Amino acid sequence: xxxxxxxxxxxxxxxxxxxxxxxxxxxxxxxxxxxxxxxxxxxxxxxxxxxxxxxxxxxxxxxxxxxxxxxxxxxxxxxxxxxxxxxxxxxxxxxxxxxxxxxxxxxxxxxxxxxxxxxxxxxxxxxxxxxxxxxxxxxxxxxxxxxxxxxxxxxxxxxxxxxxxxxxxx
Length: 170
What we know:
Distance between the termini: 41 Å
Shape: elongated
Number of domains: 1
Number of strands: 6
Oligomer: single chain
Helix content: 40-55%
Number of helices: 5
Largest sheet: 4 strands, mixed
Mean pLDDT: 85
């Protein structure tokens, strides 16, 4: 990690522009596989350890608690301060994410199947595709949040993981 990156992360933390807590809408969640539950837990843990999350606008005061949910065809970022005072909501249409989430799920399924029987070369190849799709989804999230919430790439990656988890419904 470069000093500039570390410095910017420290600036985000010092300015209060980070997530202190994150919850997912669990009402419509079906029982998740062990792999999916592990990915959810790791994403939340990693997010809370290190993130850069700065809603744009004068009225936002961090650090932030984020409630992430899917409501009908929209992704909802419900932002509160750590005293649980509402700070605002950011709503994104899900349509731009539909294809990449579907493709990501397909590749993940292939990856988990391959782990059981495939050669290391095949597993590595599938994993490279999986990581590429994950990066694409993270970049798309950053683009869709532009002008609304500023996040670094690692934060976008972990948020994209959670968006994928929210897509698993009964």
